[in-house]
Structures are given as C-alpha cells and as structure tokens.
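User: Can you write out an input/output pair for a complex, sequences first and structure second?

Assistant: Here is one pair. Inputs:
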Amino acid sequence: MRLFLTGLRVQFEVMRRQPDHLLTLCTLPFTAVILLSVVLHSARPDLVVNAFLAPALMGLWGFATGSAVEVVTGDNWSGTLEPGMAAPGALHPVYLGRIAAVMGLGVIPLGETWLLGGVLFGVTPTIHHPWVFWAAMAASVFAMTGTSLLMAAALLLSRNGGIYQNFLSFPIYVLSGVMVPVSYLPEPLRPFSHLVFLSWAADLMRDSASPGPVSAVGWRLLAVVVLGVVGLVAGRLLLAAVLRRARELGTVRYA
Amino acid sequence: MRDQLRVLRHATAAAWVQYSAYHTWRTWAFTWLSRLLIQACFYALIGRMLGSADQVEFLLIGNVVAVMAIDATVVVLLTVTERHLGTLALMVAAPASHLVTYLGRGLPNLASGIAASTIAFLALPPLFDVPVPWPQALVVPLMIAVVGASCYCYGACVASLVLGFPSARWVALNLSYLTLMTFCGVNVPISFWPDWLGALTSVLPMAHGLGAIRAFLDGGTWSAVLGGLGLEVCVGAAWFAVAAYGFRRMVAKGRADGTIEFGV
C-alpha cells in the first residue's frame, strides 16, 4: 500500500510539472462540440445524452492511452525504468499508484462536457438514475486503471509502442459503442464489444439517463468490474513477465 | 530556384528517412491507416444512427477528407524537433535558406495524409451506400491534395509560432487540426455556427476545399468547384506567407539575441 501511495504522490507531482499530461483536457472540448453540434443540427434531442457521454468516456480512455500508458513507456524511454527494477521494492504497486493518479483525473472530462453543453448549447441531459450513473462511472475508472496497466505492459514489448498507442482510440470507440450503440455495428463485430468494458459502461450510463427502470444493474456493473479485474491481473502478470524477460535477455540498459 | 529545389529534395529525403524509421508500410497500413479509416467510420455510423442517408454522406465525406489534416499538421512537431536537433546554426551559416528545410520538414507526413484520405475515399463510400459519381470522381484525390497542401501551410504557420514555446507543441498540434475538424464544415454545415465564427472559417484551410469537393460530388457546376478550390489555394498561400515570415523572424530574432544554438 505504501508503494501504491508513493506512486500516486509521484504522479501528481509529475503532472503538476508537465502539463502535457493534461492534453486530453484540451482536446476533449472539441470532441464534445463536434458530437453535440451533430445531434443538435439534426434536431435529435433524444441523442443528446449520447453526445454527452461519448466525450466523457472518450476522455477517460484518452487519459488511459495517453498519460497512464506513458507512465510505464515513458520511464522505459527515459531510462528510469531500469533503476526502478533494481530497487528493493516491487514496481507494480508504484506503477499502479501512478496510473490510478492519472485515472483519478479521468472524471474531469465528464464535468468539462457537462459545462460545455450548458454554456455553448444550453443543453444538459437529465440523469434519472444518478446512483446507477455514478456507480457505472466509478466502475469504469477502476476498470480503466486495470486496462491501462495491461496496455502499458503490452506496449513495453514493442520498440515503438507509440504507433500502437495511436491506434487504440477510434477502433475502441466504435467497438465499445460510446456514441453509437453496438446494435448499429455489423453483426460479426458485436460479440467482441462484450469484451470491452466501455461497452457495458456506456450502455449502463445511457440507460441511467432514461426515465424507465434500468434492468440488470448489478450484473452489468459486475461485468465492468470483472473486465477491469481481468485487465489488472493480466497487466500485473504481463508486466512481471516483460521485466523478467528483459533481465534474462540482458536488455536492461543503464542510461 | 534550382538550388532551393535541390535543398528541398535533400530535406525531404532526410524527412522520409525519419518517417520510414518510425513507420514500415505494414505499421502504416495496419495501425495508422486503419485507425484513420475507422475514425471516418465512427462519424459515418453517427449518421446511420441519426437515420438519414444525407447525414451519412455528409459525415463520411467530411471525415474522409478531414483525417488528412492530422498528418498535414504534424509539421508542427517536426519543426520543433528540427530546431531541437541544433541544425539551425548550420543552416543560417549556409548559403541556402533555412526556410526550405523547415517548410519541407513534414512533406512525407502530408503525402501519408493524402494517401490515407484517398484510400478512405475509395474504400468507405461503398460500405455506407454513399453514391459516388465514377469515373468523374477520380479527380477527387487531386482536390484532397489541394486541401492537404493548404492544411500543411496552416500547420507550418502554427509551427513557426510554436518554435518559441516547444513544450506547447503537442497541444498546438491537436488544437490545430481539431479546430479544422470542428468548425470548417466537416461534421455540420458552416451555417450552423454563429455568423462571426462562420466568417472566421473562411480564412481557415479545409472550409473552401471541402465545400468544393461536396459540390463536385453533388453534381455542382465546375465554376463552383473551381471557385472553392481557388479560394482554398489562396487561403493556403496566405498561411504559407505567414509561415515563411514566422520562420524568417525566428532567425532574425535568434541572431539578434544570440539564441541560435549549435548542437543539441
């Protein structure tokens, strides 16, 4: 726990000194304005909730594939991963703490989108089931932390992880139905959506904004959490395997 | 002029070596190109959700052209990298102008963007049942290239401003192309925005060129299409002139205050 808290503290300090980590907060308003303008121009107020939730979830994912993943890949690039490997404490809790710090900021895009919608377009969706909404958001942040650890460890396997980092945006947004529900995707793609926690979270959050009762809340929340746990465990195992492989192959540098 | 073209050829060759060290054709096709194609699909799917074939067409064509702007504006990052490499002192001392090197720094990325947009234009309309007038539409890639060149000049201008604030390069890059994607008629008509904002987009790249491409695909007159493309060229030329002035000013200022560093 101490190492986890240390990671949290270190990351907050890093983000304070390097505003690049907050890039998502600068780009997200444009995504929100684009999506809101499209649904309002089409006179589809029923889809305003989609246009609000999509940028929020895309922002959460953006923090994960941007700053959270770079916690590990950036250390590898700058040569600070190696001294960490030599330190007596385990690296995983430190990285998990640093990633959790980034993901803690992942809820800001939600507020940013709400603010923009109200100020620029004079619309804000009504959330009829706020507890469901916030539970889904909290589960998403947790699941995103686990998924980030998995992505970061996987990107360490590549010499040029940035290429794959770029790729992990719109394909996930389409597959997870953050804006357009999965039912609009071609039939063969739909089963894969169930493997992305964002698809469960987006559906649940959209349902929380409709006046009718939300079905199977517990099971759907559980799906988000379970996928997050899978990411967390897989990320931890993969990170350990990648670091062990680097030691065994003698590819640990001293920079 | 011939000397300048030779410098441009060498600068482009150097930029290509850097680009090909980052991307192989496989990583370009399977990560970058496929991501851009899926980005265009994301917006076309919104049109499908809206239940309107016209919206599908508007969003698909708009985003097929707009994804090129991402690559075109990467010149913002590349010029900052060039400055960081510490080559400016040598260029200032050399008889050729540093302008050619800086303005040509992102040409491989521009080519990548035009190629990606062209492939998207050829591949995606059939998937979304968007009608395209073949074979006349074969000229659309040329129009995309005109819009790309204009976006590139705009990116170069932003780059000339960002050179003094290198830590802002990522923010500047993202805001540059997102501004075009948001307000220049990519996802909603420019008339959706307040008049003052609409007027502002007329000096931005993309707005006129994309309008010309839409007019062409809708069977508009050649005068309307060529008029739009002509305005796009004028807008690009204006941004180019400002970019050239910005890069010249950078050197003049560096000479005056001794901030042109040699080496990294």
